[in-house]
Amino acid sequence: MEKSLDVTKLEAEITKLTAETMKLVAESIKLDRERRWMPFVCVSTLIGICFAIVKFLQS
């Protein structure tokens, strides 16, 4: 009886750790995607600001 409780506890702990691992992997993928696209976003923003300044100075 005691061994079956230990096995049940172990299975519950494994399930919990698996869920936590999946959550961390998903977060890692999200951060990698953000890190990959951030330079393009920054450059696009700077180009837009430059165009706005040039347009403002020409008028």
TrEMBL record:
Assigned keywords, A-Z: Membrane, Transmembrane, Transmembrane helix
TM stretches of this protein: 37-57
Name of this chain's protein: Uncharacterized protein
Organism: Trinickia symbiotica
